[in-house]
DOC domain-containing protein (Octopus bimaculoides), 1131 residues
Amino acid sequence: MDLRLALVKSSFKSMDVLASDELLRNGEEVQQVQRCICSIEVSTNTSNSERLLNGNTSSYWQSDGTCRSHWIRLRIKNNVVIKQLSMNVSSLDQSYMPQLVSISVGKTTSLLKEIKELRIPNHVNGDYVLIENLTTYFPIIQINIKRCHSDGCDTRVHGVKAVGYRLRAKDPGLSVADASAVWFIQLLSMWITSVMPNDKTLKRKILLRTRSALTHMQPLSLSQASNERPYFLSKNVLKEVDNFLTDVVFDSTGRVVPADLDILLSFNMARGSVKGLISTIKVLQNFPDLSLSCNQLMTKMIKSKNTALEKQSSSFYLPLCGCEGGQLEDKSKQNSNNSSSSSNTTNLRSIQVYLTEGRKSVDLFFKAPDFVTLTKLMIKVISGSRGSRQGLVFVYGDQNDFCQDDHVSKYSAYDEWTQQDIQSHLAQELSVPYSENDPVAAFHFEDTWDELEIPVLWYPEGKFVLVKFLEPRSDTSGKLGVKSIQFSGFHKKITFSRMLPPQPLFNPKKELVTVNEIQTLILNFLIDLAQVQFSTKKVNRLDVLDVDDIPVQDIWNLFRIYIKEENFEKAGALIRLLHCLLPVMTSLNEDQKAAIVDMFHYLCQTLDNQCDNTNPMYKMIRQLIYDGAAVFFPDKESRGSKLLNLMDDVEKLIEKPSVQLVFQSLCQFYTTADPMSLLYLPSGNLDKAENFDSQKTLALLENLISVIYRDLCDVVNRNSTNDQLLPLHNLFSSLQATVTYWCWQHLNSNDENSKAIAKHIFLRFSLSIAQKVEEAFQFLLAKKEDVIEVLPKLDKLFPSLPFRQLLILLSSTIEVLDPESRCLLLQHFKPILLQLRQLSLELHELFPDLSHNFWVNENKDDVILKVWQVESPSCYDSKEQISQVFLCPGASKMVVNFDSCCETESRFDYLQFKDSAGKSFRFHHKVGMADWPNTFTFDGSSLYFNFKSETGKTDWEYKFRVTARGSADTILTWPYDMLLLLTKFLGQLCGSTMSANPVTGKTPIILLFDETSEDLCDSALWTTIFRGGYVTPIIQRSLSGNYSTDSNPDVLHLINNMNSAWNWADQPGLGQILLKRCREHCKPQQIGGSEFDQTITAVFSALLWHHQDLREELENFSKCYSKYLFLIDCK
């Protein structure tokens, strides 16, 4: 629970408002920025400054100047306010580690002002926060390193990170320059259009000059992401140019000469305009038999698309799933299997394949978890005869499980390709394949080449990548060696791919291209770019496509035409395009909304009338509706009302597939995108919120609780889950987290009215859930015979998942509640604890015994939890330092196995490890010697590694494997996990309520607790009582009874008398007399009533009973008191 609670607290902090409403000016909005630094400067050693931003903490920037003169200057991106700035340091740097650091900010380097000075402790490893929560934009932030530990001269910094936000103003409209240009173009257009009817040659001259100019403009060259676009050609100016060309191409009656359509096509491709290209496709639909001489334009379009995709791609990891043509070395297998742990970019390291006799080619198969699009590869081969000579790359999809023999036979025809075949393939420069099985790339290594970047010729989507190495450089070599393969491209998490495999769309060598080919190429062009632009969008990246004013009506009209013509390939392409454009279709005008409504009704009817659920079109439509709630229900009120209506009558969900899908779509939208709007919760100060009614929020939540409670009862009675309502349970969890965070935020505010409203919502919501959870366990107890069988099906339902989530959320909000609220939560959550206790008695198999015997008999096998493979880089400079942290929570030890070939320069190059306790170990010279064993074990769950070189690269450095070992996790049922969470939560409530001490004031109890808590927790007395039988040095008796000694019956009688109820009017017993004297001596604070007194007395009795020394004192006291009574009687 501690880990889960820490994550919740961290989430609450990260969810906190980046900029309050008071800071926002009219028309501004908040945009979070992860990459805030545009450039970096350093005081010295400028060649290594890029290491501060490369994200690799094993590298570092080291200064080279006079003492206390080092600085790092960050230039921040325009209008970005820094939320957090941190610096990565290492304690292993010793005297190079910064100690005293100051932060200066300003607009220029000459106007820097110091705002903070701080000291970095010498035990810190990793990111150390320098500043947080700035409220003003500073173009320059400078880190001044004033002193290093041990008065070191130079300093080392392993990285700098900054996270911030931008207050982005909305589009202010036309600028003066744009207005002037638009005005001029409009005047020109009016003059030309008025003159053209009288001058028949003017139109042809204009189109001729326009066509000539467009031949020099590549597709996307006028897009916002292009560096070639002239500055004066802004979006507004280009729109006006588009209007002008449209007026020229079309006559007054709307007719067009088909041969002139290539002008509109070229111009809209250069702009990357979705609206313009869709409009052109619509016009081309009127000329089905037309063929245009635009093959060069189509080829340029595909090449421009590929270039844009390549620029925006990133490296990704693909695991090796098969090898054909030889046998992998054991070490290579092991290395490749664990490569994911060591690197995300190097996908394969040091593979050695023993070639099968009679074969020269080797096939390496890689499998992606989802669809991938490959843009390029980086292959490194081993030098010499074992390196690869040439090869091919394939990307393909396969719905079946991986079967190596089938995949090998599919591409076996390429095994005989020669160098001439590869050169001929590369010379074709294919942008569209002739066959699905065509290679996407081919490569050839010269004898002196060991590394090669390989571009991809065309970009299909697939789940498998095959790299086929055709032969080693030497015919006599029995091995083929590959150092690394690095993939670049995109992951595409989609549920549908193209309806049909890629087909030969056109021949680049033929002059004319048909309308059908043009339309298909344009649609695929838009789909590929839109997928990248909106699903893998990078921060602060300019858009490739112009998506202003999406032509929804044109897309809907084209879709109906294609369906009527049974052209399902193009209809499916339009559905995919709409799916890609969903993020930018949330602000539609009335005409667009009307088209969306018509389209939505048609898609729902298609789903309801479709019998074949495996049809690709059916899958595309389902995905479009599921992800399009914000588009198909653009109005917030109607969207929320639709969900509430469906939620009130869940029986309707089984009537039609479209109703089920709409319900799931709305639940998914409010779960992930906008839960605040469904809850009617305002943002900012509640005093400024007009017409806010908390009763609407509470009524919605209570209604939702009732629905998921009824679903629980139905699942238990039917012994089967209702899949249609699973999204509703996820929605409730999201709303629960949102309302808890909202209340936590306002309970932390200074406004008393906001606090009162937040407290009311928080308590009523929590108590409503507690009441339903109590009813749920009453129901489960009544159905205890069926609970064991149905229990696994309840894991994601109410109350299993929501109530456990609530307990974790409540634990993070206890600190902001007043004592009255805490006591109220205690009263209403206590019955649930009693019911769980009763459930544990009735169904004890769900609740493992926590006694000492359970942990003694619990499986403590030493299992492998995680493995890392580490190897020195191929080359590095002298005085290089490489660091890495190995962390595995729950591990008891880290085992390091060194390769037998490890060898370093004695006393100069060494490997240093630091375990969890901070103990440092150093190894150098050669493995197998006394001071460098083959295997070394470190205690703890973390290990810090540092390699330091003073001499530069030798023949061998290091290679080792780190294995985290420990006990396997104990699998707990959700009722038992809930019992533990609830017990801890109630304990936190009790502790925080007693700490608040509303009766006697805080100061005396807090001081007493602060002075004694540490000693009490460290005391063996404390551990003896509450650790349940764990061995401590002085233990004589434990709660489990495993350790015991003979006890004096007089002492036992004294203890029992101390805890017995008695009347002070009667003669007290010995234990009661002792208790009275102790109270008179200590004069404790009187808190609570008789139940508190009984509890404190019981704990005090347990302390006396379980501590041997105190028990012996009780025996002596009992004997002395007996002698005293005997003497009294004698007198």
Q: What stands out?
A: The radius of gyration is 37 Å. Residues 31-166 form a domain with the Jelly Rolls fold (CATH 2.60.120.260). The chain has a mean pLDDT of 78. The CA atoms of residues 1 and 981 lie 7 Å apart.
